[in-house]
Amino acid sequence: MTKSKDSLSSMRTRVVRGAAPEGYAHSALTPAIVQTASYVFRDTAELVAFFEGRGGPSQEYGRYGNPTVRLLEQRVAELEGAGDGLAFASGMAALTTSILALTRSGSHVVLFADCYRRTRHFVRDFLARFGVEHTLLAPGDVSGLEAALRPETRLVISEAPTNPFQIVVDLERMSAICREHRVKTLVDSTFATPINLRPMELGVDLVVHSATKYLAGHHDVLGGVLLGKPGLVSLVRELHHEMGAVMDPHAAFLSLRGLKTLALRVEAQNATGLALAQALEGHTRVRRVWYPGLASHPSHGVAARLMEGFGGVVSFELDATLEATGQFIDACELPRIAPSLGGVDSLIEQPARMSYFELDARARRELGIPDGLVRYAVGIEDTQDIVQDTLRALDAV
Ligand SMILES: *Cc1c(COP(=O)(O)O)cnc(C)c1O
């Protein structure tokens, strides 16, 4: 574990410079957007040489690769300490393609009950049709993991921190147990970013990011990235060439540009997240705050051990009805009401009305989603502006 100030400042440098030793085409300071669907062979001899692995163009066809996309894959792999990376059209494309590539009929998958809703649905509803079974563990419950593993378990999937309650699974213990049982681990590290957490250093096999969130960071592009050891990533790449949910070169360029400020943005969001959580905790109108940086959070111990910062998402429950909570959100002037997180703009949402809109009050209660729950994903605006605006809106309801 590297957990010093040095490693933080080196991340600041590494997100800007990366390891692009040769520089870019035309001696440009920034990479080119290679906006092509195909690559040209000079003559038949070059075509033959290409398929024999003896040179020719870098690629044959756009679905099999693109230099701008490849650069993003290498950059994120470097930041995660992974041997290789693979980019996708979205975070969900990265997750579904990877999970499909690593399972087969008769396989068993373990995931935590609070994982991203669409990941859970994919495993529960879609993979089940192909004979893949699954077990859901209680949020953060690594102690139940060993008992859940079966001889046919192929994959354990987790997130850290989770949405909306920000549970941080003990990834070190999880990967140690899985390694002992020869089960692969996949961590959706979207909420953490490589600035705050590097799961591969903790023994995890594969990491996925929705680049839509912090990595690209400006709410203007959808993307996903898979990171891991080259052997495992190639396995997924084979299927990726057939599923075809590849990242567009322009999306890769925007993600590469966003990456340059990743460390600065996340450091600012860590600081604001903590300040907002502290300001809300103990407020008379707030029942509870879920932020892993608070000592009161159930995952605080694990988060403090594994993470270098606690992120920019603060969840809190108001002592208020569904309606009054909506009024609080409307009274906040700074954050925009929108799904997503991790970008430069602060975003706010009421999970009972956004992520869980299709459930009635009872179903929401069973899932543990209170009517007064608010998820605040801080952007890079001024910390005091965000805190003061939130406190003012609390007084208004
Ligand atoms: C947003 C998100 C995803 C899905 O990513 P998309 O880019 O929207 O497909 C997956 N996991 C987590 C934790 C997310 O926040």
Could you walk me through the main structural features you see in this protein, from its secondary elements to its overall organization?
The protein is an alpha/beta fold. The protein folds into two domains: 5-259, Type I PLP-dependent aspartate aminotransferase-like (Major domain) (Aspartate Aminotransferase, domain 2, 3-Layer(aba) Sandwich), CATH 3.40.640; 262-396, Aspartate Aminotransferase, domain 1, CATH 3.90.1150. The protein is built from 15 helices and twelve strands. The protein has helices spanning 5-17, 44-51, 67-80, 91-102, 117-126, 145-148, 171-180, 193-196, 230-243, 249-259, 262-280, 300-306, 322-331, 361-367, 383-396; strands at 84-88, 108-112, 133-137, 153-159, 184-188, 206-210, 224-228, 286-290, 313-318, 336-337, 347-349, 373-377. A seven-stranded mixed beta sheet has the order 1-7-6-5-4-2-3, sandwiched between helices. A five-stranded mixed beta sheet has the order 8-9-12-11-10, covered by helices on one side. Pyridoxal-5'-phosphate binds at residues 90-92, 116, 159, 188, 190-191, 210, 212-213, 222, 224. The site of pyridoxal-5'-phosphate has 13 residues, from helix 4.
The CATH level-2 architecture of the largest domain is identified as 3-Layer(aba) Sandwich
Q: Specify the biggest β-sheet.
A: 7 strands, mixed
Number of strands: 12
The 3D shape can be described as globular
Uncertain stretches of 5 or more adjacent residues: 1-5
The helix-strand sequence is HHHEHEHEHEHEHEEHHHEHEHEEHEH
Quaternary form: single chain
Query: What do we call the CATH homologous superfamily of the largest domain?
Result: Type I PLP-dependent aspartate aminotransferase-like (Major domain)
Strand line-up in the sheet with most strands? 1-7-6-5-4-2-3
- DSSP helix count? 15
Relative strand content: 5-15%
Rg over C-alpha atoms, rounded to the nearest angstrom: 22 Å
Distance between the termini: 45 Å
What small ligands are held by the chains? pyridoxal-5'-phosphate
> How much is the average pLDDT?
94
Helix fraction bin? 25-40%
CATH topology of the largest domain: Aspartate Aminotransferase, domain 2
According to CATH, what is the class of the largest domain?
Alpha Beta
The count of domains is 2
